[in-house]
Design goal:
The complex is a heterodimer of chains A (about 475) and B (about 775).
Chain A: H1 2-13, H2 31-38, H3 44-49, E1 61-68, H4 81-85, H5 93-96, E2 120-123, E3 128-131, H6 135-138, E4 144-151, H7 157-166, H8 176-184, E5 194-200, E6 225-227, H9 245-266, H10 269-292, H11 299-305, H12 315-327, E7 332-338, H13 346-370, E8 377-382, E9 386-387, E10 404-405, E11 409-414, E12 422-424, E13 426-427, E14 434-436, E15 439-440, H14 441-451, E16 461-463, E17 466-468
Parallel strand pairs in A: 1-7, 1-8, 4-12, 4-15, 5-6, 5-7
Antiparallel strand pairs in A: 2-3, 4-11, 8-11, 9-10, 13-14, 16-17
Helix pairs in contact in A: 9-10, 11-13, 12-13
Chain B: H1 9-25, H2 48-59, H3 61-64, H4 80-83, H5 105-110, H6 130-141, H7 172-183, H8 194-205, H9 212-220, H10 226-235, H11 239-251, H12 269-280, H13 285-294, H14 303-308, H15 325-345, H16 364-374, E1 396-399, H17 401-405, E2 419-422, E3 433-436, E4 444-448, H18 468-475, H19 483-496, H20 517-529, H21 534-542, H22 555-560, H23 577-587, H24 646-650, H25 669-677, H26 679-693, H27 699-711, H28 717-736, H29 738-744, H30 758-773
Antiparallel strand pairs in B: 1-2, 3-4
The chains are: A alpha/beta (about 475), B mainly alpha (about 775).
Chain lengths: ~475, ~775
Amino acid sequence: MEQQEKEFRLNVTRRHFLTKAGLGLGGAALGGLLFKDQFMGVDSQAAMQLGVAQFAPKAKRIIYLFQNGAPSQLETFDHKPLLNKMHGEELPASIRMGQRLTGMTSNQEKFPLVGSTFNFAQYGQSGAWVSELFPHMASIVDDLCFIKTMHTEAINHDPALTFFQTGAQQGNRPSMGAWMSYGLGSENSNLPSYCVLLSRGRGNGQGVYSKLWTNGFLDSVHQGVVFSSGEDPVLYLNNPDGHDKQSRRDMLDMLAQFNASSFENIGDPEIKTRIQQYEMSYRMQSAVPELTDFSKESNTTIKLYGPDCLVPGTYAANCLLARKLSESGVRFVQLYHQGWDTHGNLEGDMRMQAEDVDRASAGLIKDLKQRGLLDETLVIWGGEFGRTNYCQGKLTKDSYGRDHHPKCFSLWMAGGGTKPGTVYGETDEFGYNIAKDPVSVHDFHATVLHLMGINHEQLTYKHLGRRYRLTDIAGEVVQGVIA
Amino acid sequence: MKLRSIEPISTKKVYFFSAFLIALLTGVAFFFMREKSVGDEIPDVVDFNFHVRPILSDRCFKCHGPDANKREAELRLDKEEGAFAALKDDPSHHVIVPGDPMASALYTRIVSADTSEMMPPPSSNLSLSKREIEILKKWIQQGAKYKKHWAFIPPAKSTVPEVDEDYNPRNEIDHFIFKKLDEVGLEPNGEADKNALLKRVCMDITGLPPTIEMQEKFLRDQSPNAYEKIVDELLTSKHYGEKMAIPWMDLARYADSHGYQDDGYRTMWPWRDWVIHAFNQNYPYSTFITWQLAGDLLANPSKEMFLATGFNRNHKITQEGGVIDEEYRIEYVTDRTNTFGKAFMSITLECAKCHDHKYDPVSQKDYFSMFAFFNQVPEKGLVGDIQLASPGDPPNMKITSEDVKTVMNFINKKDTSPVVVMVMKDSAGIRPTQVLRRGNYDQPTDTVEMNTPAGILGFNTAKFEKNRLGLAKWMIDPKNPLTSRVFVNRIWNEFFGRGLVKTVGDFGMQGELPSHPELLDWLAVDFMEKGWDIKRLVKMIVTSSTYRQSTKRSPEKLQADPENKYLSYYPRLRLSAELQRDLILSAAGILNKEIGGPSVKPYQPNGVWESTTSGRGELARYVQDKGEKLYRRGLYNFIKRTAPPPALLIMDASTRDQCEVTRSRTNTPLQALVLMNDPQVLEAARVLAQNTANLNVSAEEKLKKLFQLILCRQPNKKEMEMLQDYFTQEKNKFNQNKIKASSFIKAGEYKQIKTKDLGETAALMQINQLLFNLDETTVK
């Protein structure tokens, strides 16, 4: 059962969080490379086939700016003048083609088309369309790679989010970040390989769930570690009151002495691992506050992200923190920003949401670029599905809303080996169906894994008799977005 | 022949060197020191079940197995008829010619270097090792005999083997285990010392550490059955049911919220109280599962029987406004069906929802025939949005104070208002069940009847009713090959940290083979013969010499059997998330031993619920409990599915999203942070320190007592010296900085206890913190 054994080893060598620090090799070596060294002479080639750097990765790290609640493609990047022309007219049945609707609009008698209230213009060399809500993103379109033709199978938030993050609508499968952690390990011995940052906008919010950053059936070391804006940036990080660094050091020394004597008596290697883990927790206690402390950031940097970045817990602050974590070698930084669920009062909500995310999202790209990190960092911006081209509820003069729409929506990627200044795929004139080059969620996952140097069909884990993949049984790499 | 011997020397050196380096530095040596591990040899007699099928199943069945839709070249290797047939595209050749590998296409294709011929094909990403190829060759040479998959043949007792009396075998378990050890050239360890054994058996049976009185009484008791007396005493403790309930709650995906987006409140806790009660009453396993599966269908069911059926309503339920009702109703039925497969049969039924099972004899039609049993509930996919959601969607039962006083006095309900629990019920007529194409709710195809997979055990309608009660009877039928084996294996896993079948949730062809097949079968048959008596099984395990071994392991043992599959020592296992908490609170003397009742909300870092919630429903904000509720056992911790208690999750607890039969056992820095910085642990250290400071004994006695409470044994001389040094150092430090000392001892809401000497109290608290964090404290 060698294949099984390989998966077992890959999982178990990672079972001890940040194991390689114990090898004293520091943060420089890639988890994958180190892993290869560890198995030299066993069957290193076979171990590599599991997905660890099967070809030169274009990206080393990912920052995923998830726009939770599903921003409307028709108010962001997918310009559809026909909708303005046909404003108020009924959605033709020939376009809808019997698409199933959510419980929120399935009883609606009319489906009046609604044009965006926001103006669009083309920007940059690429001529990408961006709505007036996102001037900062508009200024960097030549660094971005838009996909206009994402589509999904789910029509409600929970299953759609879960699908995007785990490759399945139901079931507790490992999330994208957990797969990366499993396949590639961490670059930094003092930080988790998968970090999660949460923020909430002023629009209609839908919540997030820990299953979105779950390790699923992989070991729990691959679980996303949530950073919070509260007193403890990582849960339980701070020493108790009355305890300083020195008292902690003293206690750890004492613990190590006791544990070492247990090891002498019993010979259980897990005891040594435990000593290591305590030492790592100590290093984490210094490493994390250094990252969450923005006081040393220059004014130029602050300006890039906007003044909100100094308010802990905001989207802007999370973007800056994401850059710092990623720069320090965190493999996968996952942001969630709530508030995009614009069933009603779309105009007001979109304005607020855009205001909160536009500058910082663009700022992150600019910041990575000026640091020379954009090439090796893949940044992704997008939500879980799109929004309908028809109005939810009654279309009035000053207000409209849009329901969930799975058949097309937009996202963008930047850096990490994606083709800059690209607009991939086309939707129809109604912004309802895909006209050219559809990209499914599985295709998207396959592409992201490819950019990380992993063949999505080969990064597998056998659980209860079946070999699972992030891409389940589908997924084609979208060559058109790769540089 | 040992394959390793053909490796070039130079490679071996590197291998040894890196193994050594890693062993030295990380302690994860066991994966690399496989040079002399047992079980790598090519067996003299190749057995289909043990050697051949695992290879065929894992590497070939995907295209040449039971799934007719995905079968390539019309060739199936899972059945003899297929394997011995002439090739479809070349009738002059045969797939397997017994006795003649070179005439067998199976063999020539797997050794072919031609990529167009080679099997498995390169595009499959699968390959065979040299050893595996050798095994297949030898099997063909020896006549290519097929056998039915071991788990689908009803178990039978084999003769208990003779073993060396020097090893002190106490019961049949030892005979089987020691015999195997002998075969692989290992010897069992001797008995653990009394303290270690006492802690182990206490943590395993009640989940609570032995008190100092228990420790001393046991040490004094020199009678030959001193240990058996302790076991009997522990088995009558009410805390036994709590301990046994924890893995059952994982399996039953118990939670206090509905799950999914808005994640509203639910009140299934009376069902959990019933589980504790059922274990304490030692209901036979057959009764235990019959009531949970079909209590409502029994003749004149009692309220208790109805309550037990809550098992099948513990799945998640959505309250997301826009969902399509039928899509989610199908999802709930799916969850029940999959849970049934995993929990009771250890078969991955869910694989057959979208297509025929690729490995096991479960077709998609079989899946939906099972599904049909669970598809009769008058329930909705979406009852209403979160504002309308109730803590218990219909069908449900109301439990009143009168019930709790009379027929269900095991329910810990103090509130006078009735509590609503979701239970099972079948609609009046039969709801037809269709096979769903690719498992999609909106693509029904052929209608199916309630039935079970014939490859496991057919559903004899003369014997079994066509409903869940019939299904329950089918499960506990003596001919059912799985039910008893699966449960016995799960209990074994609880006590030894590894099942006799390691893949506790998969007994199918893709699962691992049993390490001790004869023992597993012997225990499974014995369990049924003795009336499915769970306490008896537990007692048999914990009184075996195998269980009573010490944990000491030599480098030779580690090398020969890195996973300790053969149990030549007792595996040292980290306590589960809940039990770590219980041990700390219990040692500190602040554990609230109340049993059952609504789940509680102890300390939790700020913002865990608030940063994830949609803002709707009564669980949007975490309102921490006060007073005694802070000190309940870990299993009563409120589980909100979308944001489970972080301290438990970090310690590998289940999220309760779906049925889980095993937890991972990791060792991480985040766990270190919890144990060092969680206010719950600090408070326990503080209260224990204050109470100890007030004892009228010497500092040495105080330290000794703390050690004994937390480690469940006396410190040795060296340990005592280390403790004293550390105590003196910390005391001096705190004496020099009273501000630090007083802020340190503020931890927790438990009432402050006045002590005379602040420095001493803080130093004692520091000692407790140290002891709580010792590796030995956290293992059994």
